[in-house]
Structure prediction request, 164 residues.
Amino acid sequence: MKQEAGHSDRLERPSWDEYFLAIARIVRQRSTCLRRHVGAVIVKEQRILATGYNGAPRQMRHCSEVGCLREQQDVPSGERHELCRGIHAEQNAIVQAAAFGVSISGSTLYCTHFPCVLCTKLLINAGIKRLVVEEAYPDELSQQMLAEAKIEVCIRDLREFEKI
Prediction:
C-alpha cells in the first residue's frame, strides 16, 4: 500500500477482543490474591460497563496481608471455593455493575481466566451472552453450563499481540 505524503506508517490496531483483554490484564494488576491474579471487564457495544479483580471484600484485609487460607489448608486449585477470603474478578465486576445500577444483560465478559462454576452461574443469571478469556481453566461443569446456556465462549491467546 502506498503511503500518502506526510503520513507515517500506521500501527496495526488491536481487534476489540484484543483491546478489552489487554484492559483485563491491566485490571488484574490490582489483584491481591497470592495464588492467581485475575482481571475482568464487562463490555456492551464496545463500552466498558464494569471491571473487577480478585481480592478480599472492601474494608477487609487482603490475603497479601494475612496470608492465603487455601495455601495454609493445602486446598487444591479448583476445589472448595468457599475456603477463601477473596471474591473472584467476575463476581466483583458483576457487583460493581449492580452497585451503580448498570444492567449487564446482553454484554460480553472479557476475563484473563476461564470462570469457575460459581462465577459461571452468576454470569448466566446476569445475562452475559459472550465470554472471551485468555487462559483456560479445567472446570468441566462450568463448560457444560455455559454450553447449555448458549453463551458463546472464545479463548484468545494474547501473547501473539504484545504491543500494549
